[in-house]
Specification:
Elements lengths: L1 H9 L5 H4 L1 H12 L3 H22 L2 H9 L1 H43 L5 H11 L6 E7 L4 H13 L4 E6 L2 E7 L5 H7 L5 E3 L3 E2 L4 H14 L8 E2 H12 L1 H14 L6 H13 L4 H8 L3 H15 L6 H11 L10
Parallel strand pairs: 4-6
Antiparallel strand pairs: 1-3, 1-4, 1-5, 2-3
Helix pairs in contact: 3-6, 4-6, 6-7, 10-11, 12-16, 13-15, 14-15
Organism: Pseudonocardia acidicola
Pfam family, one: HTH_30
Protein name: PucR family transcriptional regulator
């Protein structure tokens, strides 16, 4: 390195091998994982030591000459440092891309084997730098929320949380290593993002299952939702999506029974309010601003017309499934 600098100062010929010293230093330090600030500081510090030693050994005339040429000398040193920096950044970018490609490939392998191959799970854990026996939350967001989703990832990584971010079919995916106590922070970071969060995966081998669940939740979320969807509040829509023929058959049955009933919408609204509330007549009457006997009469009329008595848990489940049908049916939405 010093020979390169001295030859340039003296205006001597610089061979090809010597001319590439700056590049090789930058590449080597990037591959060693040394920080760029340390690399830059070291390049300047090394020459500073030599410069001070030269001044100490020089006589009065030589020192005057060195000081006179100092701007040109330090310009050459700065150029050397800049070339190191450019090589470092270029190689770091290449290494990041290769590392990212490798992480994405092993995550795909983990999903492909469904977490059932211990060797793949362990290799994925090593590459992703996640513990194989860790606890994880898996979230998937639509692409139109990708910007805010990445911001949430950055907020978590800034806290030194272990995460993996990857594009998957249907959206962007985030795997977060999280304890039960940390789940609240995860929810806060994702609170204003339309995404789906699967139940906790206890081990990296359970992550593929969590990914499928999150994908199913995301597919069932309403388009106007602006907050995360969890399995506990989306399970009905998820189940209906998974069994569309059964759901539609239930909806068609209710539609046919209420086809010529003028107050069908009122009966449906009353039953829906009853089922989606706490299942009490008094609470339903309060929400609909009517007498409890009116609620009882409507529920009984719905039973007589359709055979579905939403006061019974099994019938209530059938009714809610029918309400989740993919197309409206006689006022049923």
């Amino acid at each position: 390195m010093f020979e390169l600098i001295w030859r340039r100062i003296a205006g001597l010929e610089v061979g090809k091998d010597l001319a590439e010293v700056s590049y090789r230093v930058g590449v080597r330090r990037a591959e060693q994982g040394v920080s760029l600030s340390e690399v830059q500081a070291a390049a300047n510090r090394d020459f500073q030591i030599v410069w001070e030693a030269m001044l100490a050994e020089a006589d009065e005339d030589e020192a005057a000459t060195l000081l006179h040429e100092a701007p040109a000398i330090w310009s050459i040193v700065d150029d050397h440092t800049q070339r190191i920096t450019e090589a470092y950044r270029r190689r770091s970018s290449e290494l990041d891309r290769l590392s990212g490609d490798r992480r994405r490939e092993w995550f795909r392998r983990l999903l492909k084997c469904n977490g059932e191959r211990p060797d793949v799970v362990q290799n994925a854990a090593d590459v992703l730098q996640l513990p194989a026996d860790g606890r994880f939350r898996v979230a998937i967001a639509h692409r139109d929320c990708a910007g805010r989703f990445r911001d949430a990832r950055d907020a978590l990584t800034a806290l030194r949380w272990s995460c993996h971010y990857q594009e998957v079919e249907g959206g962007d995916l985030l795997v977060i290593q999280s304890t039960l106590e940390q789940d609240k922070r995860v929810m806060n970071c994702l609170s204003e993002i339309r995404c789906a969060i699967a139940p906790a995966a206890h081990g990296l081998d359970e992550v593929p299952r969590a990914v499928r669940i999150a994908s199913d939740i995301l597919a069932a979320l309403p388009e106007d939702r602006d907050s995360p969807g969890l399995l506990e509040d989306a399970w009905l829509s998820v189940a209906a999506t998974q069994a569309p023929l059964v759901t539609q058959a239930l909806a068609d049955r209710i539609q046919c029974a209420l086809e010529n009933v003028q107050d069908a919408d009122v009966l449906i609204e009353t039953a829906r309010t009853f089922c989606e509330g706490d299942g009490t007549v008094s609470r339903t009457a309060s929400e609909l601003y009517c007498h409890r006997n009116t609620v009882l009469n409507r529920l009984e009329r719905l039973r007589s017309l359709t055979g579905i008595d939403v006061r019974r848990p099994r019938d209530a489940a059938s009714f809610l499934f029918a309400m989740s049908a993919g197309r409206p049916a006689g006022g049923i939405t």
